[in-house]
Amino acid sequence: MVAKLIDLVFGCKHSRYSFPVTVRGSRRPQAAALTGTYVACLDCGREFPYDWQQMKVITSSAEKRAYVAAVAAKPAT
To answer: Which end of the chain has fewer CB atoms at under 10 Å, N or C?
Structure first.
Protein backbone atom coordinates (compact mmCIF):
# COMPACT_ATOMS: atom_id res chain seq x y z
CA MET A 1 0.00 0.00 0.00
CA VAL A 2 2.72 2.45 1.00
CA ALA A 3 4.83 1.41 -2.01
CA LYS A 4 1.93 2.17 -4.36
CA LEU A 5 1.50 5.61 -2.81
CA ILE A 6 5.21 6.39 -3.14
CA ASP A 7 5.17 5.11 -6.72
CA LEU A 8 2.16 7.30 -7.47
CA VAL A 9 3.89 10.44 -6.18
CA PHE A 10 7.52 9.82 -7.20
CA GLY A 11 7.21 6.90 -9.59
CA CYS A 12 8.14 6.28 -13.18
CA LYS A 13 5.86 7.49 -15.99
CA HIS A 14 6.63 4.38 -18.09
CA SER A 15 7.06 6.36 -21.29
CA ARG A 16 9.83 4.24 -22.88
CA TYR A 17 9.35 0.51 -23.51
CA SER A 18 11.49 -2.30 -24.86
CA PHE A 19 10.56 -4.23 -27.99
CA PRO A 20 7.84 -6.83 -27.23
CA VAL A 21 9.22 -10.20 -26.14
CA THR A 22 7.22 -13.39 -26.73
CA VAL A 23 8.05 -16.18 -24.30
CA ARG A 24 7.62 -19.80 -25.27
CA GLY A 25 7.99 -22.43 -22.60
CA SER A 26 6.88 -23.11 -19.08
CA ARG A 27 8.85 -20.38 -17.26
CA ARG A 28 7.13 -17.10 -18.11
CA PRO A 29 7.45 -13.80 -16.30
CA GLN A 30 4.28 -12.72 -14.49
CA ALA A 31 3.70 -10.02 -17.12
CA ALA A 32 3.68 -12.61 -19.92
CA ALA A 33 1.16 -14.86 -18.17
CA LEU A 34 -1.81 -12.96 -19.65
CA THR A 35 -0.83 -12.64 -23.31
CA GLY A 36 2.41 -14.57 -23.68
CA THR A 37 4.16 -11.34 -24.69
CA TYR A 38 5.51 -8.54 -22.53
CA VAL A 39 7.47 -5.28 -22.67
CA ALA A 40 9.70 -3.72 -20.04
CA CYS A 41 9.97 -0.07 -19.06
CA LEU A 42 13.48 1.07 -20.00
CA ASP A 43 13.61 3.52 -17.09
CA CYS A 44 12.52 1.41 -14.11
CA GLY A 45 12.51 -2.19 -15.42
CA ARG A 46 8.87 -2.96 -14.63
CA GLU A 47 7.27 -5.47 -17.02
CA PHE A 48 3.81 -5.13 -18.63
CA PRO A 49 1.69 -7.49 -20.75
CA TYR A 50 1.58 -6.58 -24.45
CA ASP A 51 -1.23 -7.31 -26.93
CA TRP A 52 0.09 -7.97 -30.47
CA GLN A 53 -3.38 -7.77 -32.08
CA GLN A 54 -4.03 -4.23 -30.87
CA MET A 55 -0.31 -3.37 -30.62
CA LYS A 56 -0.57 -1.78 -27.19
CA VAL A 57 0.65 -2.21 -23.66
CA ILE A 58 -1.93 -3.48 -21.17
CA THR A 59 -1.37 -1.35 -18.08
CA SER A 60 -4.57 -1.15 -16.04
CA SER A 61 -6.68 -3.81 -14.34
CA ALA A 62 -9.67 -2.79 -16.45
CA GLU A 63 -7.70 -3.40 -19.65
CA LYS A 64 -6.63 -6.81 -18.33
CA ARG A 65 -10.23 -7.78 -17.59
CA ALA A 66 -11.37 -6.55 -21.01
CA TYR A 67 -8.60 -8.56 -22.71
CA VAL A 68 -9.55 -11.75 -20.85
CA ALA A 69 -13.25 -11.21 -21.67
CA ALA A 70 -12.45 -10.68 -25.37
CA VAL A 71 -10.35 -13.84 -25.51
CA ALA A 72 -13.06 -15.83 -23.72
CA ALA A 73 -15.76 -14.58 -26.10
CA LYS A 74 -13.75 -15.55 -29.20
CA PRO A 75 -15.02 -18.81 -30.73
CA ALA A 76 -12.53 -21.68 -30.65
CA THR A 77 -11.15 -22.78 -34.00
So the answer is: C
Over residues 44-52, mean pLDDT: 89
pLDDT of 15 above 70: yes
Q: 35 CB contacts (<8 Å, ≥6 apart)? A: 49, 50, 51, 52, 58, 67
Distance CA 31, CA 49 (A): 5
If DSSP codes are grouped into helix, strand and coil, which group holds residue 71?
helix
The answer to whether 29 touches 23, Cβ cutoff 8 Å, is: yes
Could you read off the pLDDT of 23-32 as tens digits, one per residue?
887 777 777 8
